[in-house]
Design goal:
This protein has about 180 residues and is an alpha+beta fold. The protein contains two helices and nine strands. Strands 1, 2, 3, 4, 5, 6, 7, 8 and 9 form a nine-stranded mixed sheet that branches. It is globular.
């Protein structure tokens, strides 16, 4: 996204635990919009959870390193609701922001994430806890916000260099949900 604060709703985590405090989230809808860069996407089909971490580690990260993109901004896009879609059918795109004019080749596709307004919250914690944050944001916060989810994909955004804290094992990212007024 252009600029760290462009087109975002501010939803700070609760002190100390890195989870969204739905009850006390002060939100404003700025008039600016997000314009993410082109990105390289590789699709994983299968259950979310630990398999996604393995996909990043074993497939995407080696490609990033070999192409000098070890510090790139990454986007994880889950296309399916795992409470509805069978685990073996869940689709996930691991995406890497690309510099202008970059030609990666290989079996990945190059796409552009649609810009616009997103509700954004910070997540920091064990990767096993991220599903709870997604659930609270979509099933509790969003219905009470006066906004609705639009047709664009939701995603997690993180820096490849700093997303995982090796000392604590905590994962840090921004959870981004595309929104529009009701």
């Amino acid at each position: 996204m252009d600029g760290r604060n462009a087109g975002r709703l501010c939803a700070p985590p609760a002190p100390g635990n890195g989870r969204l405090a739905i009850e006390s989230v002060p939100c404003k809808l700025p008039s600016s919009t997000c314009r993410p860069p082109s990105r390289r996407a590789q699709r994983h089909i299968g259950p979310y959870g630990p398999a996604i971490g393995a996909f990043w580690r074993d497939t995407v990260a080696p490609w990033m390193q070999s192409h000098g993109l070890g510090d790139a901004t990454c986007y994880g896009i889950g296309h399916d609701d795992p409470s509805i879609t069978p685990p073996d059918k869940c689709r996930y795109d691991a995406c890497v922001a690309l510099p202008e004019g970059f030609q990666p080749g290989g079996r990945a596709s190059i796409t552009t994430l649609p810009g616009g307004r997103y509700a954004v919250t910070q997540f920091k914690g064990p990767s096993s806890a991220i599903a709870e944050t997604w659930t609270r944001m979509t099933r509790e916060w969003l219905p009470a916000s006066g906004l609705q989810w639009d047709e664009r994909p939701c995603f997690e955004r993180f820096s490849a260099a700093t997303a995982m804290d090796p000392a604590t094992g905590e994962f840090s990212c921004e959870i981004c949900i595309p929104v529009r007024p009701l």
